Amino acid sequence: MNRKLWIVVKEVYRKNVMSPAFFFMVFGPLIMFAIIAGVSYLIAQDQISSRQGTVAIIASTPQVQQVIETDGGENQYRFDLPDEQEAKRALAAGAIDGYIVMDVKEDTISTTYYREKTGKDISLMRLENTLENYLKNNKLESIGLTTAQLNYVQNNRVNMKTVNLELTEEGEVKEAKTEDWTYFVNKGIAYVMAMVVFIFIMNYVSVIAQEIATEKGSRIMEIVLSSVSATTHFFGKMLGIALVILTQFGIYLVMGFAIYHAVMYFNAWNLIPASLGITEMIVKQILSMVGSTVWLTMIYAIIGIITYSCIAGFLGSLVTKVEDVQKTVLPITLLGVAGFYIGMYATASSNNPVVRIGSHIPFFTPFVMPHRIAAETVSESEIWLSMIISLVFAVACLVVSTALYKGSVLLYSDKGIMKKVQQSFQLFMDTKRSQTKE
Question: In terms of pTM, does the model score above 0.85?
Answer without folding.
Answer: no
